[in-house]
């Protein structure tokens, strides 16, 4: 997770009160913006979610493939 101090803030948009919230609600943006612990990455929509999931699974498989070598290089201490 990205520490809050390293997260980029979103630009402020000058829109009438309530209208931005109304427009973004279906996208889930307001839930993210109002969250006490917002994600550092979010994939909106099934296509994006599935694509990111496939990449994450492939990266995890590669990480697991090199597990023994990775762990053998650690310094005891």
Q: How many structurally independent domains?
A: 1
What is the H/E string? HHHH
Outline type: elongated
Question: How many helices does DSSP assign?
Answer: 4
Low-confidence residue ranges: none
Gyration radius over CA: 19 Å
Rounded to the nearest angstrom, the distance between the terminal CA atoms is 26 Å
- Strand element count: 0
Indicate the structural class.
Answer: mainly alpha
Q: Which quaternary structure do these chains form? A: single chain
Strand content: under 5%
What is the averaged pLDDT score?
79
Largest sheet, in brief, is: none
Q: Key features?
A:
about 80 residues, mainly alpha, about 50% helix, elongated
Topology diagram in text:
Elements: H1 19-24, H2 29-34, H3 46-65, H4 67-72
What does this structure look like?
By secondary structure, this protein is an all-alpha fold. The protein has one domain. It contains 4 helices and no strands. The protein has helices spanning 19-24, 29-34, 46-65, 67-72. The longest helix has 20 residues, at 46-65. The chain is elongated. The two termini are 26 Å apart. The relative contact order is 0.08. The mean pLDDT is 79.
Short description:
The chain has four helices and no strands. The protein is mainly alpha-helical and 77 residues long.
């Amino acid at each position: 997770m990205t520490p809050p101090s390293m997260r980029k803030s979103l630009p402020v948009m000058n829109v009438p009160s309530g209208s931005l919230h109304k427009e973004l609600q279906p996208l889930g943006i307001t839930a993210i913006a109002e969250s006490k612990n917002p994600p550092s990455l979010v994939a909106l929509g099934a296509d994006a979610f599935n694509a990111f999931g496939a990449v994450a699974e492939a990266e995890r498989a590669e990480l697991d493939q090199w597990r023994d070598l990775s762990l053998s290089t650690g310094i005891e201490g």
